[in-house]
Amino acid sequence: MLAIDLIQLCICFILGVLGDVGTEIKTVRGIEGRTITLNTGLTGLQNDSILWTYGTVKAETTIATLNVGRNRPEYNERLNLDAHSGSLTIKSLTTSDYGIYELRVIREQVWKQTFNLTIYAPVSAPYIRHKTQSLSLASPLKQDSCSVVCTVKNGRDVTLSWYRGEERINQTSNPDTNKTLFLPLEVKVDNDIYSCVANNPVSDQTIKLSIEEHCQPHSGKLYVPFKNLPHLSAVFLPSK
Question: Whole-angstrom Cα distance, residue 188 to residue 224?
């Protein structure tokens, strides 16, 4: 490990003497458990010294090299460095792989490219349930509409939306990923197609609303609780 640290120190000295060319920062997104390649756009590299560094805030740790020094052994299994392009492939992504990845190709000058990698988990599938409502005798039953709620497990940059056809009519999100997302909707029983969509920047999941399934609680009967009907424990009103 001491030898690797000395090599890294020498590399830093060389880079400081030669200077950097190129300051582009490219934002890339990966999916947890999958593979991503940080493409450099270069071709035909031959005998060039290639150096990849990484850090959550600043790229300071050497993780992959070619023709200069040695790789840190803890990074060998999941990384693949393409000798012809300098592109770096990362396998089996985890959420801890997010951060700054920096490439340096050492020639007469140092060509540099920086990647800002964000890792997302695939979004969970949403589900729809009927929203139970207490009915009072003063309020007539609305048989041309029903109330439903779409729910999904929250995550990083997850948005939950209701669509009527292609039109988004409502949406919600919450930066607190420990909070489940809920999105209610009053549905008019008509020929429109309603769907609930959960998405983040790398994936999406959709469930369509079924009037027969989601708007017919208690096998087609509407349940009125005891507290709304004096002298009765409960009553079932047949739906038409």
Answer: 21
Q: Where are any strands of DSSP class E within the chain? A: 20-21, 25-31, 36-38, 49-55, 61-66, 79-81, 88-90, 99-106, 110-120, 127-130, 145-152, 159-164, 167-172, 181-188, 194-200, 203-208, 221-224, 235-238
In a shared domain, residues 208 and 98: no
Range of the domain at 204: 127-238
Q: What is the CATH number of the domain that holds 103?
A: 2.60.40.10
What would the 3-class secondary structure string for 91-112 be?
CCCCHHHCEEEEEEEECCCEEE
Tokens 């009053």 found at? 186
Q: Which tens digits make up the pLDDT trace of 135-148?
A: 444 444 455 788 99
**pLDDT (0 to 100) of residue 225:** 38
Total domain count, the chain: 2
Regarding whether 49 and 90 lie in a shared domain, the answer is: yes
What pLDDT does residue 77 have? 81
Report pLDDT for 217: 53
Q: Does the pLDDT at position 12 exceed 50?
A: no
